[in-house]
Hints:
The structure holds two protein chains of two kinds.
Chain A: E1 4-7, H1 17-20, E2 27-30, E3 33-36, H2 46-50, E4 56-59
Antiparallel strand pairs in A: 1-4, 2-3
Chain B: E1 8-14, H1 18-29, E2 34-37, E3 52-54, H2 55-58, E4 69-73, E5 75-79, E6 85-88, E7 94-97, H3 99-112, E8 116-118, E9 121-128, E10 134-141, E11 144-155, H4 163-166, E12 178-187, E13 195-199, E14 209-214, E15 220-227, H5 237-248, E16 253-263, E17 271-272, E18 275-277, H6 293-313, H7 318-321, H8 323-346, H9 351-362, H10 371-381, H11 385-394
Parallel strand pairs in B: 1-2, 1-11, 2-8, 5-13, 11-18
Antiparallel strand pairs in B: 3-7, 4-7, 5-6, 9-10, 10-11, 12-15, 12-16, 13-14, 14-15, 17-18
Helix pairs in contact in B: 1-3, 1-6, 6-8, 8-11, 9-10, 10-11
Amino acid sequence: xxxxxxxxxxxxxxxxxxxxxxxxxxxxxxxxxxxxxxxxxxxxxxxxxxxxxxxxxxxxx
Amino acid sequence: xxxxxxxxxxxxxxxxxxxxxxxxxxxxxxxxxxxxxxxxxxxxxxxxxxxxxxxxxxxxxxxxxxxxxxxxxxxxxxxxxxxxxxxxxxxxxxxxxxxxxxxxxxxxxxxxxxxxxxxxxxxxxxxxxxxxxxxxxxxxxxxxxxxxxxxxxxxxxxxxxxxxxxxxxxxxxxxxxxxxxxxxxxxxxxxxxxxxxxxxxxxxxxxxxxxxxxxxxxxxxxxxxxxxxxxxxxxxxxxxxxxxxxxxxxxxxxxxxxxxxxxxxxxxxxxxxxxxxxxxxxxxxxxxxxxxxxxxxxxxxxxxxxxxxxxxxxxxxxxxxxxxxxxxxxxxxxxxxxxxxxxxxxxxxxxxxxxxxxxxxxxxxxxxxxxxxxxxxxxxxxxxxxxxxxxxxxxxxxxxxx
Lengths: 61, 402
């Protein structure tokens, strides 16, 4: 699937859990928001699985 | 009058939680100039913590103060999936903290030894000299970028740590070594304020546990951690927590909701040239309980003392500063590895096993119920595993061998 990962800001608590499970350092906390670099992302979906509020969603590009 | 930020500090600590504050304090106490950069507007927020600690664990670091002690904990109850439970006392007291105030007290202590703190200061990278060697930290403060020179950078920047990544340390956590957590702070309940409760089972909290830590007779932190490999779409920690609340505290009102991740395996590398990681950034957490405050403080002390030695020797190489790793390993390493092996079995334990253990322990007379008695029963059911698990919940058994 050629989707991209996006953060649903109304669900995100900016806890940083997603950052800690990303193998390719595609996620950072910047200015109190989670930033996903979809160019780096390998779609392992670890971040999707561990997000306490299921705030990371896969969308069509 | 705002204290000026100098162009140079011996040590720059990124993150003003317990790990950063204790590191800063021990470095400053021995004469280092120390700057703490805290991203948030104040230290201690947002609270991502169940706030329970053992008295023996934190007493080497700070005098107890009623300002940050919510409740004194005398015991714990362990609840099996079939609804059975066993209460245990006589295993050392605990506190439920007011982390917001506690964290500030730790930073105040560091500042009283000479450290400086700047809040709203978000570290964004290292600076390097012409030889490519790390020479300082870049940070963003009130909309502008600044840099500060230093010899040592401490990554105390929590679960989302960037410092380790910038230094080339692999800090990625495997899903099986992560607990994904949600916690409510609730009121309008009626509970025993001296008893922490732990709930286990595949239907309750797969690969983790659910906790209730009283903040008063009428309020508590109620939260859950489930193993990272156990989540399914729409069936994550929030789902299990809501299920528990509906069943057990349908009238509770929630005044605070927070999510977070807890590592359950310590990192293997805490040090790089000019850089040391401490606390959650180094994944220094009790693998069974998920408790990180005492661990962070112990590591912070060792890390701060290592700063002093590196400054005296003017040697900031990974090789020299790896003394921090060696001392950490001496104090905590064996304990961590053992707890981790227990955790690995624990996350796979069946409901039947939880039921039979709690059931068997319950048959012991309350007067005789201590960890030793629990151990004897658990030995029949599951050699070693559960007794050690209970020990880790109830008391800090770490010997302070500095």
